[in-house]
Amino acid sequence: MESRGLRPDGTIAREGALSRVPAMFRPVVEAARARITAAFGPDRLHSAYLYGSVPRGTATPGVSDLDLFLALRHEPVDTDRGNARAVEEELDRAFPQIAGAAVGLASAPDLLSDRERYDGGFFVACLCTPLIGDDLAALLPRYRPTSLLARETNGDLGLLLPRWRARARQAMTEADRKALGRSVGRRLARTAFTLVMPRWGGWTSDLKCTAEIAGRYYPERAGQFRLAVATGLGSPADAGVLRTLLDDLGPWLVTEYAAIHGLKAPRT
């Protein structure tokens, strides 16, 4: 039977665990724990989390990133952002088994707010694995694969397309286009999946699965969904690929999303 990532009660299960971290990545995780604790301290840090392929147990040495997310006691300030960059740089230098480290920041009160409950809150409760501190998931609801969740997680794609097109015009090198393609491809693939998520009735963060599932409902777009996934995973993103994603698939997703789930309210 196909796994739909749900608990027995039909709510979305948390997808990662420290016990799933591959052996080669465990020293990186422990170093991240120590460096975050030293850089932020209890007055600033509420809790820290892993997400992505490392806690899901699917990370590939030399290819996968170490993705970290910090919930601070107050809104992040420039000092926090500088400390996060320092942690990233230290981990990058020390551990060749990761392609890079990324540290995201938010405030715990914001993640628990009504505004973020079905976006940042869902991200922490279902897509993040606790590493340090008290788990915010204990204060958040159990989530179901609903239209509300679809709208709040990916209903703002239309705001991103103009920014990506501007970056595409400025992308002069293959490396620039590849970096943009990774961001665009991953977001479009996940948006295609959440478009059909309530109909499918489950959750997955596996990019290849997202294309396969979305393609069942929109077979005429299946090739573009697969292109988005391949680009998101690092395939070359030449000008033609970026045009397809930004000027065809992207606008179609915005229109279809609005018709089915509505649009996410802009954040101020």
UniProtKB/TrEMBL annotation:
<dbReference type="InterPro" id="IPR043519">
    <property type="entry name" value="NT_sf"/>
</dbReference>
<dbReference type="InterPro" id="IPR002934">
    <property type="entry name" value="Polymerase_NTP_transf_dom"/>
</dbReference>
<keyword id="KW-0808">Transferase</keyword>
<feature type="domain" description="Polymerase nucleotidyl transferase">
    <location>
        <begin position="47"/>
        <end position="82"/>
    </location>
</feature>
<dbReference type="GO" id="GO:0016779">
    <property type="term" value="F:nucleotidyltransferase activity"/>
</dbReference>
<protein>
    <submittedName>
        <fullName>Nucleotidyltransferase family protein</fullName>
    </submittedName>
</protein>
<dbReference type="Pfam" id="PF01909">
    <property type="entry name" value="NTP_transf_2"/>
</dbReference>
